[in-house]
Specification:
single chain; mainly alpha; two-stranded antiparallel ribbon; two-stranded antiparallel sheet; 8 strands; about 50% helix; about 5% strand; disordered N terminus
Length: about 500
């Protein structure tokens, strides 16, 4: 149904504001100082400004951690068994997540996850509403397809992570406040159904020959939509669909496994989707690097410097620079199989002197996002390796054990390991879980969501000293108390 001019103006005004600093990201003309509903969808160039606004919104590192620029990796890792805060006194909100004792007024939950996610969803809805209302003949069909497919993909992407954190969600599919002002929570099953619907529509749209030019990995493509769709099927235990969809991506020959050192490179053929980061924002760094890597990795220093740092009188002054904001749990660092090159390349540590209170303990950290002074990173959202692991798990669940082992071996061989020795359905499921833990260590919260969806979270996380007393209710984050005050029809998750 078409929006009235009044509501269309409100919808697109917000995304016009978001497009005010995006030239560096998509190399388009400077956005207009004021954009009306008619102007913003008049031409392809102006539609690009709208898309640039959405992409910029997702990569605004200057605003701190947000759902799609590091918060999912960081906070899901704290809620699982991946990270521990280096400072539990001055960052109480992070400590709550680490101890699985979240409170409904936790600012992380409200601002970095819930609000950040729904802002992107609102922007996606505004794009969809605005495109549908535009009658401009100079907005090409190819650009309309790109607008719709991109908006549906990122709406699905946000809902995927939000439902992973919060469970049932308000399912907003329009910018019409009359339909959303008192919206209630939809069940998680319905949320997943909408995710699948959006992604299927994106796949169909992107199959159009008119958008065949979208072949890179810094824009939403058919491959990206299929990859996320395969993951959504996996989470719903739709094994046959997960296998078939992941196989389509694998057989497309559009991506390939890279050497571990190149997996996150800007030109990597493994990345299915990555976002450009403005080099002026944190010098082009991504938040994972800022939070997970120390300022000084000792292994990168000449021996003379190391000797100076380890001087007993000098060492205490270097501790803050040697310690990342979030330390990789030693148990996680040691969970890699012997000889796994993923640990050698993607995990590092800073040693400490054998003196009180350090006692020679290693400070582990994730090294996936390291970069030298010559290169910067894009922000990797999805990698090709995941498709083999999705297909492997789906095949195990359908008792296609030999084929599943072949998929595992591809991932293992890339990591410098031999063929899997796992046998039987239970053994191969454990092998899949191990490969996922190693492959996605410190990446997009896979560990947290995998433990929950496979029913292992209570037994694994509940055994940790910092999470003693963990209950099933604590595996869902609380709905922010401010949101419930603003909309009393939103019901709180049990236990909060």
């Amino acid at each position: 149904m078409k929006f009235s001019d009044r509501y269309l103006t409100c919808a697109v005004f917000c995304i016009a504001i978001l497009a005010t600093s995006c030239k560096k990201l998509l190399e388009i003309d400077e956005p207009l100082d004021s954009v009306t509903s008619v102007q913003i969808f008049t031409s392809d160039a102006q539609a690009d400004q709208t898309l640039a606004g959405m992409y910029s919104q997702m990569t605004s590192i200057g605003e701190g951690l947000l759902l799609l620029n590091g918060a999912t990796t960081i906070y899901a890792g704290l809620a699982a068994d991946e990270f521990a805060p280096a400072d539990m006194v001055n960052f109480p909100d992070q400590t709550e997540l680490f101890r699985s004792r979240m409170l409904p007024d936790n600012k992380i939950i409200l601002e970095d996850l819930w609000t950040a996610g729904y802002k992107i969803i609102y922007t996606a809805n505004a794009i969809l509403d605005g495109e549908a209302a535009s009658t401009s003949r100079t907005l090409t069909q190819a650009k309309r397809v790109e607008l719709k497919a991109s908006a549906k993909f990122f709406r699905a992407y946000c809902y995927f992570y939000l439902t992973g954190f919060f469970g049932d969600l308000p399912l907003a599919l329009t910018t019409d406040y009359r339909k959303t002002i008192n919206i209630t929570r939809s069940g998680q099953r319905e949320v997943y159904q909408q995710i699948v619907l959006d992604l299927k529509e994106a796949v169909t749209l992107l199959s159009d020959p008119a958008v065949s030019h979208l072949t890179g990995n810094t824009k939403v493509t058919k491959i990206a939509a299929q990859a996320l769709l395969a993951r959504a099927f996996l989470y719903q235990k739709d094994w046959s669909s997960a296998e078939a969809t992941s196989e389509e991506v694998i057989n497309s020959n559009s991506r390939q496994l890279e050497r571990l050192q190149l997996a996150f490179d800007m030109k990597s053929k493994e990345t299915i989707l990555q976002l450009k980061i403005d080099p002026k924002s944190n010098a082009g760094n991504i938040n994972e690097r800022l939070y997970l890597s120390p300022l000084i990795p000792i292994n990168s220093l000449p021996e003379g410097y190391i000797d100076a740092i380890f001087d007993p009188e000098a060492y205490p002054g270097f501790v803050p620079a040697l310690t990342p904001r979030l330390i990789l749990n030693e148990q996680t660092a040691n969970a890699f199989e012997s000889g796994d090159q993923r640990k050698a390349i993607w995990v590092d540590f800073n040693p400490s002197p054998n003196l009180e209170p350090y006692f020679g303990k290693s400070i582990y950290f994730v090294n996936k996002y390291a970069m030298d002074n010559k290169e910067r990173l894009n922000y990797v959202l999805m990698r090709f390796a995941e498709l083999y692991l999705i297909r492997a798990e789906a095949r195990v669940m359908q008792n296609k054990l030999g084929l599943a082992a072949e998929d595992l071996d591809l991932i293992r061989n890339r990591a410098g390991l031999g063929k899997t020795t796992a046998v039987g359905q239970e053994g191969l499921l454990a092998a899949v879980a191990q490969e996922r833990r190693s492959e996605f260590c410190g990446e997009w919260g896979h560990r947290f969501f995998d433990l929950k969806r496979t029913g292992k979270a209570l037994s694994v996380l509940g055994a940790l000293p910092e999470k003693q007393g963990l209950t099933a209710e604590m595996l869902l984050f609380p709905i922010p108390s401010m949101e419930i005050r603003n909309n009393p029809k939103l019901k709180q998750n049990p236990g909060y």
